[in-house]
């Protein structure tokens, strides 16, 4: 029996002027794990893998970003 602990990755997607980015797509790179940001630019997702993980953030009209989570 192998058990893998779920961990939560959460954060906030903001513009350069600190405004929330609504509906941005947030995915863990090379997985099918993902979500979208809410009205405050916040996201939360469960991640069963090992860290560090790379998060991809995409939204129309913005440059895509990759962020490493340790």
Description of the structure:
This protein is mostly beta strands and 70 residues long. Helices cover 0% and strands 43% of the residues. It has no helices and six strands. The protein has a four-stranded antiparallel beta sheet with strand order 3-2-5-6, with no helix packed on it. 11% of the residues are buried.
Q: What proportion of the residues is helical, as a percent range?
A: under 10%
User: Biggest sheet, open or closed, and with what strands and sense?
Assistant: 4 strands, antiparallel
Q: Reading side by side through the largest sheet, how are the strands ordered?
A: 3-2-5-6
Query: Total number of helical segments?
Result: 0
H-E order:
EEEEEE
Number of strand elements: 6
Average pLDDT works out at 93
How much of the sequence lies in strands comes to 35-45%
- pLDDT < 50 stretches: none
Distance between the termini: 27 Å
Radius of gyration: 13 Å
Shape, principal axes of CA atoms: globular
Structural class: mainly beta
């Amino acid at each position: 029996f192998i058990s893998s602990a779920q961990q939560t990755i959460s954060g906030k997607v903001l513009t350069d002027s600190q405004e929330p980015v609504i509906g941005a797509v947030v995915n863990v790179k090379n997985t099918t794990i993902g979500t979208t940001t809410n009205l405050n630019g916040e996201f939360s997702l469960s991640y069963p893998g090992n860290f560090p993980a790379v998060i991809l953030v995409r939204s129309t009209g913005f440059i895509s970003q990759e962020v490493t989570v340790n």
